[in-house]
TrEMBL record:
Gene3D superfamilies xref list: Galactose-binding domain-like, Glycosidases, Immunoglobulins
Signal peptide, first to last residue: 1-23
PANTHER family in the record: BETA-GALACTOSIDASE, BETA-MANNOSIDASE
Protein name from the UniProt record: DUF4982 domain-containing protein
Length: 832
């Protein structure tokens, strides 16, 4: 888009539930009928390591135009080495995207600690395809949703793009460089440089998000070119002030208009409007505005996330030529200095978690379905908000947040007001500004400059750039210092001065002072907690594991147990809420230890999404509409007869009575934040808690001493999978005793075997110290649990059977029904 001149045309057309709307809808068609959005994920060739520039036959010995200069060569179309057309990549590995090569590497103590002790390096990807002669004249765009970390893209031997953020999507209009017709091969080559890093956590390496090839009419709706975010007007009515960017890559000036239709979940067109025509020069663009009133829509909320579809159709001389569907939700949001956050005018405390983007077994190449899985887990914990720390998320995460009702603080990677980085910020806002889930733009995390005038100015510029594209959501920054001056009053020169919402990372001891210093600004805890615990461990071993009692935290995060952190936030009624560090554990930044820990011990859930004690604690703190009661730890302590075991009841009840083998241990009043703990001399048997609220029994929970494991058990998160090569399901592996009880201390090696239309795409066990391969057909359980991620094969259908066996235990077999689904339209793989 940036090479196109933008002509902004304002055509306000008001039309709604009115006969004209029905007439207008006559001239529209579905996006599938007008544009082709083809997956380019299948069938890439992959080479780990760089390729010498002079390795291209014919390249050796040439001087000025030759490979001794760059891959790029000196002339369009004549790149060298692996960047060239016709390069022989037949010996390379075939991979499908999303792909993270770093997660496939062995752990290595000499590799970067912050990145999780795995080698990163440089790699190449290549993909070839043909386009029929009938595509001539169309707009052809390549889309990369995310490549970690830096990359250069070559198309048909011409260098076409450099990308310097592993989190920003990019699109390349390759229209003038395409070759058409059956015999003409088109070649995409991508050199990925993951030697560099952008963060202090695991970032993976490779083309780890989806890729697409989009064929559109030369007059088309630009990528991310629809802004259709519903707003409530001053009179209380709803309107979608749609702004649509139309582009023209055709040869002549064109006249085009847009039709905007709003459809409910049942597919009924409930409102619409159409613009007057605008003229668009070749290689030009125009922004067309159409305000569409919508009468009495159903609202979107975290409990009832109702979505509508806005269908935007580009019309050339009255004929539909392109269309795009945008999912939207009708909701109001407000951050208020006195009332905190309000959704649909109702106060709602943000019970948030911060999260990086990797998952066990798959690294950062997270299948779309796992975003659903992860958000469902967080909702189960009582969370209603998600911070995309510290970078733009996959768009599929936001789609899932829209569908499931999870509010999102959307964070950019770079605190930088230079043109290139502002362009990344613009891209983020343009891509994400229609999502009802997105409520807050975060412009930075813990920047050195946040404390001074430079930081204030960078934030001012970034804030202004955001406002040009979206005035409906406030900005904030995750700021861990500098809001206060030495006098304890507002520091006149710091980043918070430039932002709508003051973000506070940690600094719980200063909450009152910061509140007083910014009386007119809303405040949110952008980050807190940093609680460390290792799932299923209850004794700290200062070399590698942390006991799971919610009482150990790094020095910089004082007061940061999950309980202490939430208590501090809850005691600030004007705060919008908070985002704990973290929802899920993540690779890299292996706090509080280094090697052998390769992932952090942070997280209410481990790398697989298995709950830790913090999960139950947050559930007790956050869930209000039902009783919550969980006991920690398990009750398998053979060898500790008579010794005191610390027991924590995570509950939202008033009192808890604890019984060991039917005998009352104690009946305690529950502190709503600290909850309740005992020291219980251990004896085998059953430890049971009975919780009361308002004098009535409301919940019971028991842990029992189990027998030895005798059998395995597999529990898939879902029993059906789409046979599309994309859908994925995590399966939990447990060992059970003779009575069918899961054995929480089992650490058994499990052999896996799969048959049918699918495959294992990764395994994990949530152990931060594990150095086992994650692409394997075996896994070792860690404290009673392991996870296997299964994926249905493209065009697959039938029964996918996973078998698990371990020594003399009874094996287990689970069957997932792989359902045939229409194939995702994709670009066929053609060999050169
Ligand atoms: C914060 C930082 C996070 C993470 C965390 C660990 O200061 O924003 O990225 O490093 O500390 O406690």
């Amino acid at each position: 888009m940036n090479r196109l001149s933008i002509l902004v045309v304002l055509t306000l057309c008001l039309a709604a539930l009115h006969p004209a709307v029905r007439a207008a809808s006559a001239g529209t068609a579905s996006p599938a009928a007008l544009r082709q959005t083809l997956s380019l994920d299948e069938g890439w060739r992959f080479h780990l390591g760089d390729i010498a520039r002079d390795s291209f036959a014919g390249g050796q010995g040439v001087n000025l135009y030759g490979p001794d200069i760059t891959y790029h060569g000196a002339k369009a179309g004549s790149a060298w080495g692996a960047a060239a057309r016709g390069y022989d990549d037949r010996g390379w590995q075939r991979v499908d995207l999303p792909h993270d090569w770093v997660v496939e590497q062995p752990f290595d103590e000499k590799a970067l600690k912050q990145q999780g002790y795995r080698p990163r390096g440089i790699a190449w990807y290549r993909r070839t395809f043909t386009l029929p002669a009938s595509d001539r004249g169309k707009n052809i765009e390549l889309q990369f949703d995310g490549v970690a970390t830096h990359c250069t893209v070559y198309f048909n031997g011409t260098e076409v793009h450099h990308n310097f953020s592993g989190y920003a999507s990019f699109q390349i209009d390759v229209t003038p460089m395409v070759r058409y017709g059956d015999g003409a091969i088109n070649t995409v080559a991508v050199r990925v440089d993951a030697e560099d890093t952008e963060g202090w956590w695991y970032e993976g390496g490779g083309i780890y998000r989806h890729t697409w090839l989009v064929k559109r009419s030369p007059i088309h709706i630009a990528t991310d070119g629809v802004y259709a975010n519903p707003v409530k007007d001053v009179r209380g009515g709803w309107v979608i002030p749609a702004e649509v960017t139309l582009a023209n890559t055709g040869v002549g000036v064109a006249s085009a208009a847009v039709d905007v239709g709003v459809f409910d979940a049942a597919g009924r067109r409930v409102a619409g409007g159409r613009s007057a025509p605008v003229r668009i020069a070749p290689e030009g663009a125009a922004v067309v505005k159409v305000a569409v009133p919508v009468t009495a829509p159903r609202l979107w909320s975290v409990d009832a996330p109702t979505l509508y579809t806005v269908r935007t159709t580009a019309l050339r001389d009255g004929t539909p030529v392109d269309a795009a569907d945008t999912r939207v939700g009708f909701r109001t949001i407000r951050f208020d200095a006195h009332k905190g956050f309000l959704l649909n005018d109702q106060p709602l405390k943000l019970k948030g978690t911060s999260n990086h983007q990797d998952h066990a077994g798959v690294g950062v190449a997270v299948p779309d379905a796992l975003w659903d899985f992860r958000l469902r887990k967080l909702k189960e914990m009582g969370s209603n908000a998600y911070r995309t720390a510290h970078n733009p998320p996959a768009k599929e995460l936001l789609d899932a947040a829209d569908r499931l009702g999870m509010l999102v603080m959307d964070e950019t990677r770079h605190f930088n007001a230079s043109p290139e980085y502002l362009e990344q910020l613009r891209w983020l806002v343009r891509r994400d500004r229609n999502h009802p889930s997105v409520i807050l733009w975060s412009l930075f995390n813990e920047e050195g400059l946040e404390v001074n005038e430079e930081g204030m100015e960078i934030a001012r510029v970034m804030n202004a750039v955001v406002k040009q594209l979206d005035t409906t959501r406030p900005t904030t920054g995750a700021q861990n210092k500098g809001q206060l001056g030495p006098d304890g009053k507002a520091n006149p020169k710091n980043a918070a001065q430039s932002l709508d919402v003051v973000g506070i990372n940690y600094q719980a001891d200063d909450y009152d002072r910061i509140r007083a210093a910014y009386p007119d600004k809303p405040i949110v805890s952008t980050e807190d907690t940093s609680q460390v615990m290792t799932r299923g461990e209850y004794t700290t071993d200062w070399a590698k594991v942390v006991a799971s009692y919610d009482d150990v935290y790094p020095g910089w995060a004082a007061t940061s147990t999950a309980r202490g952190a939430w208590e501090a936030i809850a005691r600030q009624p004007t705060f919008a809420g908070g985002f704990s560090w973290t929802g899920f554990a993540y690779r890299g930044e292996p706090t509080p230890y280094g090697w052998p820990s390769a992932s952090s011990h942070f997280g209410a859930l481990d790398l697989c999404g298995f709950p830790k004690t913090e999960f139950y604690v947050r559930q007790a703190l956050w869930v209000k509409d039902r009783p919550v009661l969980t006991l920690v730890p398990h009750w398998n302590w053979a060898g500790k007869e008579g010794q005191p075991i610390k027991v924590l009841a995570a509950t939202n009840a008033d009192t808890v009575a604890l019984y060991l083998n039917g005998k009352l241990v104690g009946d305690k009043k529950v502190d709503p934040f600290k909850m309740v703990e005992w020291q219980v001399p251990w004896a085998p048997g059953r430890l049971e808690a009975v919780a009361q609220k308002d004098g009535r029994n409301v919940a019971r929970f028991a842990v029992e001493t189990t027998g030895e494991p005798v059998a395995l058990r597999l529990t898939p998160d879902r029993n059906a999978l789409s046979g599309d090569g994309r859908d994925a399901v995590p399966v939990t592996v447990e060992a059970i005793d003779a009575q069918g009880r899961p054995v929480p201390t089992a650490n058994l090696a499990v052999a896996l075997e799969v048959s049918g239309p699918g495959a294992i795409i990764g395994v994990g066990n949530g152990d931060p110290n594990s150095h086992e391969p994650e692409k394997a057909s075996k896994v070792t359980m860690y404290n009673g649990l392991a996870q296997v991620i299964l994926q249905g094969r493209r065009a697959g259908s039938g029964s996918l059977v996973l078998r698990a066996a371990s020594g003399g235990l009874k094996p287990f077999e689970t069957t997932i029904d792989v359902r045939a689904v229409p194939a995702l339209p994709s670009v066929p793989v053609v060999a050169e």
